[in-house]
Amino acid sequence: MFNAIVRFSVRKKLFVGLTTLFLLIGGIYAMVTLPIDAVPDITNNQVQIVTVSPTLAPQEVEQLITFPIEIAMSNIMNVEEIRSVSRFGLSLVTVVFKESVPTLQARQLINEQIQTVSGEIPPELGTPELMPVTTGLGEIYQYTLNVAPGYRDKYDAMELRTIQDWIVKRQLSGIPGIVEINSFGGYLKQYEVAVDPDALYSLNITIGEVFEAMNRNNQNTGGSYIEKVNRAYYIRSEGMIGSLKDIERIVVANRNGIPIHISDVATVRLGSAKRFGAMTMDGTGECVGGIAMMLKGANANVVTTELEKRVEKVQKMLPEGISIEPYLNRSELVNRNISTVIRNLIEGAVIVFLVLIIFLGNVRAGLIVASVIPLAMLFAFILMRIFGVSANLMSLGAIDFGIVVDGSIVILEGILAHIYGSRFRGRTLSQEEMNREVENGAGGVMRSATFAVLIILIVFFPILTLTGIEGKYFTPMAKTLVFCIIGALLLSLTYVPMMAALFLKRTIKDKKVFADYFFEKLNRGYQRALEWCLHHVRITVSAAFLALAISLFLFTKLGAEFIPTLDEGDFAMQMTLPAGSSLTESIEVSRLAEQALKKEFPEIRHVVAKIGTAEVPTDPMAVEDADVMIVMKPFKEWTSASSRAEMVEKMKAALEPLSDRAEFNFSQPIQLRFNELMTGAKADIAVKLYGEDMEELYSKAKEVARFVEKIPGASDVIVEQAMGLPQLVVQYNRAKIARYGINIEELNTIVRTAYAGESAGVVFENERRFDFVLRLDNDKVKDLNLDKLFVRTTDGIQIPVSEVATIDLVDGPLQINRDATKRRIVIGVNVRGADIQQVVNDIQHTLEQNISLKPGYYFSYGGQFENLQNAINTLLVVVPVALSLILLLLFFAFKSVTYTLVVFSTVPLSLIGGILALWLRGLPFSISAGVGFIALFGVAVLNGILMINHFNGVRRSTRYSMTTSRIIRESCSHLLRPVFLTGLVASLGFVPMAIATSAGAEVQRPLATVVIGGLLVSTVLTLLIIPVFYHIVNSTVMLRHGKMKKWFGFAVSFFLLCSFPIGANAQEAQTMSLEHAIEMAVQNNPRLRIAATDVKRIRAARGEVVELASTEFSYSWGQLNGTERKDKETAVTQPIGSILAPFYKNALVNRQVATGNYYKQMVEKEVKAEVKRAWAYYLYAYNLRDMYREQSMWADRLQQAGELRYQQGDITLLEKSMTTTIAADMRNNLFQATEELKLAASRLQWVCYSDVPVTPDETSVRLYPVRMDSLPLSSAHLNYFHSQVDEKQAMLNIARSRFFPELSVGYVRQNILPDKGLDSWMVGVSFPVWFLPQRSKIRQAKFERNMAQTQADANARELSNRVQELRATLRRYGESIRFYTTTALREADNLVSTADLQFRESETDITEYVQSMNAAREIKKGYIEAVYQYNVAALEYELYH
């Protein structure tokens, strides 16, 4: 099929050329009309329901509005999450649907449920409404109304807000793609009737009567029409209020025929609604502005362009002195990111082009391959347009033209190698010959190139199955790259052969270029390296997989994050004031913060603070919260800081004077909006605490924050403002209410109307409409004073409301957050200078250790961490699927499990470079890097396919069979150039992305780093490891048989699977080396610990060396030596003992310490010997088990063959019974050997004192090295024997020291009247007069010393004799081993192979065959046992030396 496609392309050049032209035209059109945005929209499929009820506290909002809505929404199908926020006057419920549910269908389902629940929510409390169809990328254009310096007095905040609402907003709302213009700041204009409570009371009028009069005197009606003569006259009454004067003239009541107007009881004026938000800018105070919200799925670039055009028109409609000044325009970020992508693509294309020109050695060939780049890109633009993929940082940012043109490089290199070889050198080919040779050259590599490109394609298809945030981020990238590679594949099959036949030089000259010299020199070095690897196969393979193991270890040290943070260029600062702060305080603090930032940092263009909630409350903030947008100048103009992190720290330092009034946390505009919309939190990590009682939740959250702040990497730790809202609670006395005949509704209406205001309709100013509101005069009643409010009883008497109600000041919830219908509070944590995964692990560990929760309270974690966990779980499915698809396609390409696994070995080896590159650059593992690894897997096998196909092609093309080594040597010199080029071009194409520092580079950098590092290392390893594996597969005699080759394939498969770590819950055996096992045993052995403790005990006895007798004190009085009876005498006597005895005792302690140390050395040698003996026993049992397992399998096959031959009549029943008996015997032997292996494993674990089973890392039969020359006996043993004799001698010396004199000293003081203070000194000497007992002790000590000497000599002699015996044993078993290794084992193998051959050919009967196999088995068993006995003797010999 491939040859037919190439033949058609070469023969039908005009058709291919016209098709390429159409591709060029269509691609340019698609590129021009393609939607453009900064990043993919990752907002989940959500619908927000908002209910505004200005008079309700959070508790009532939750109870009366939020909870009914949540219950209704939980009945909708395909809902993934329901969360809500209940604030003062506002309920916001967010319902997240599955991505498969269309947005309009989701809104329809929500609408149906709202209609159902509307009956449960009283109309006066508010009406649930759906928020605009927008996303986290919706805030594309933010602006303020700027007043020129000379017009500041003309336009106040109310007038500016009116202009914003009725001019700017209306004009901007009609733009296609704009779903809402959200007004912010200023005062919402109202016609206000401010009632004087004293006037009401004096005239006996209630506030309800005033409201009723207002309501009845503001309406129009019609009287249909009348006919007169031949005309119709339509009737219309005008009763609508048109001015403040009209309001003042409204009659409230009549008193004795005198009308009482509203002007008599109230002040009529222009007022404003209670504000729950404001806007300030650049520290100059309040301002008015708006936010343009884009429709979900709209083209940001087109919408922004249209918006800018409309703003220019609106500027001309505005009153003089007012202008629209945008401070945040999405088009700037889009342009920065797209310029980054375009620059990287152009730089990558230029690098690829230069590399092709230089290393292909043919300018025309380089131009042909390079021309594939723009054509493939245009093909991708067409498919992006068809499938609705927008051009953004992710969709275009991962395109590597090196990967795209890999297939074209392989095909063109094959054409060049075929045409410009020695065959046509010096000739000028005709066009027909050129066509034919291009077909032949391309056909030789077309299959390899196509399969390689298909594998690159296949690994990207699992990425298309990603869902959630990671799917929205990386699916556009995968789609674009797949489109591009498909285009390049089609072009390489059609366009490249056509252009090669048309434009390559037909005159073949023998002229070398730079590329030829370069590859000749490179090839010489490569051949030397390849020769060394082929001669040291084990070292090469071991080194490769050791590098893999090291890289996997480094992978565990990388850390992890969800997606690298995109540098948006601007900052978003969250300002949080203490709970209960007023809007005025928030405005003042924001003004001071803006001034501080503008003063300190010239890099700041604008600072705009949005305080509280806007008119469309998609972000339900309180008046204590503010989102401050810090619009920065370009990074190159920065002077105060050299990085974003440094700028943030300096900004925090500048705001430090305000830290006692507010908390400040920094983020970025889009990032902040995404975090909030996706998880309901504005932080990288959201620690969510669930429970029932808000006070308990808030106190525990504060406690959690104190611990989290101490964790490295955790910054901006802030507890959600949940408590501390000061509430004046009006408590009604129901008994008094009943007595006066009043109802609660009437009282609530009076309180609500007096302070919140009650709308009595609207007042029209042409098209504009403003609320007509009644409330108490704020100048007259600034406090909640119930004495000023009056209610009329059933008797017509007005009583103050304070008569039936009291006021309490309490602290209530500031807001109530609910998630999955449960209350929760969020501790927000931003991560700075650390990876998010490690910080979350530290937080979890800290909270488990230090926080105790009540039953029903629990933690969960959201924010970016939640996204990271979801993405990792998805990758755990996607990566194995991608690897399985690679394996499947490789098997289709080679029709061989062995070759499939040989090529697949490049996949785990490619991990080495990718992980090492991340580690060297200090980048954590992110989803971006994970996608890089997936792409790397596909590219890594391309060269492997090329090499294996070439090897097999050379093997098939020769008439006589060639040795594998010769095939490898002849092929690799030709393969070096295409393999080197594909790896180099693909990696260099990513270099601009890896080193870019401009906008959007943060997301591309990990992906590019992984692919560059992985491809560079993978290319080198492929050129060396693939030939080595091919040599192993085709050179081993055993693997020439099909069954053995199959088993080799399964073994390699198992090994490759083991290369990817898979977590397991069960406790697995610990594989370790002998040295590690000995080290473990030495650390844990109790005998060694006891010996070491005994040495410490003996050293502690040194304090007994100098032992003095008790000191004697005496006191005498009376007539001692004089005439008076008042004499006194004081005496002190101290026996010192023998002067030499301490020295002999110290010598004894020294001897005992030495004996203890020698004993410890002896025990340590014995412990090591025990471990080695257990190790040798395990190896013996393991190899014996393997031998019996092999014999059991052989016996089973023999039994099957016997039954078959018996059925065919070739053998007798006796012979058949013999095969059955042998099989049963072998199974029994295998069972016994298996049990013995378990016993050996248990013994090895016991001697190592390990908590888990221990498995040797090397299980082959091997001899312990031992020196047979005359070595001195073990110094530990001999020194121990001699030290025991020395110890007895020291005890004899102590006994002899008892004959030496013992000294004593004394002091006497006497008072013999009349003399006083008579002093005298005394020195005494004592020695034994009766010395027979002491002499008996000395004689006993001498006998003990002699006995010890005799025992030491006997032990030394016994040790020497044992060593002689061991030498003889070693010589005996050594000779047996030499017999087995030089003769017997080889003969046994020959015997087995000959018996197998004769048995298969039916040249021998079963009896002889069984005898031959038994003889071979006994030889192998004898060899294993001889090695074991030799090792046991060698270990004992080592112990005594």
Question: What would you say this structure looks like, in words?
Answer:
It contains 41 helices and 36 strands. The longest helix is centred in the last third of the chain and has 69 residues, at 1332-1400. The chain is flat and about 155 Å long.
Instruction: Say what oligomer this is.
Output: single chain
Poorly predicted residue ranges = 1036-1068
Count of distinct strands: 36
The DSSP helix count reads 41
The helical percent reads: 55-70%
Strand coverage percent:
15-25%
Distance between the termini: 75 Å
Chart the SSEs and their pairings.
Layout: H1 2-11, H2 13-33, E1 46-52, H3 58-73, E2 79-87, E3 90-97, H4 103-117, E4 129-130, E5 139-147, H5 157-172, E6 178-184, E7 189-195, H6 197-202, H7 207-216, E8 221-228, E9 231-237, H8 244-248, E10 251-255, E11 258-261, H9 262-265, E12 266-272, E13 277-281, E14 289-294, H10 300-317, E15 322-329, H11 330-360, H12 363-387, H13 393-397, H14 401-404, H15 406-419, H16 431-460, H17 468-503, H18 514-535, H19 537-555, E16 571-576, H20 583-600, E17 604-612, E18 625-632, H21 644-654, E19 663-667, H22 669-679, E20 685-691, H23 694-708, E21 714-719, E22 723-732, H24 734-740, H25 744-756, E23 758-765, E24 768-776, E25 790-792, E26 798-800, E27 805-813, E28 815-819, E29 822-831, H26 836-850, E30 858-863, H27 864-894, H28 897-904, H29 906-921, H30 927-957, H31 964-988, H32 991-995, H33 1001-1035, H34 1042-1059, E31 1070-1072, H35 1074-1084, H36 1086-1100, E32 1112-1118, E33 1127-1138, H37 1141-1208, H38 1213-1248, E34 1254-1256, H39 1275-1296, E35 1302-1312, E36 1315-1326, H40 1332-1400, H41 1406-1439
Parallel strand pairs: 7-24, 31-34
Antiparallel strand pairs: 1-3, 1-4, 2-3, 2-28, 5-14, 5-15, 6-14, 7-12, 8-9, 10-11, 13-17, 16-18, 16-19, 17-18, 20-29, 20-30, 21-29, 22-27, 23-24, 25-26, 28-29, 32-33, 33-35, 35-36
Helix pairs in contact: 1-16, 1-17, 2-12, 2-17, 3-4, 5-10, 11-12, 11-31, 12-17, 15-16, 15-17, 15-31, 16-17, 16-27, 16-30, 18-31, 18-33, 19-29, 19-33, 27-28, 27-30, 28-30, 28-33, 28-34, 29-30, 29-33, 30-31, 30-33, 31-33, 35-37, 36-37, 37-38, 37-39, 37-41, 39-40, 40-41
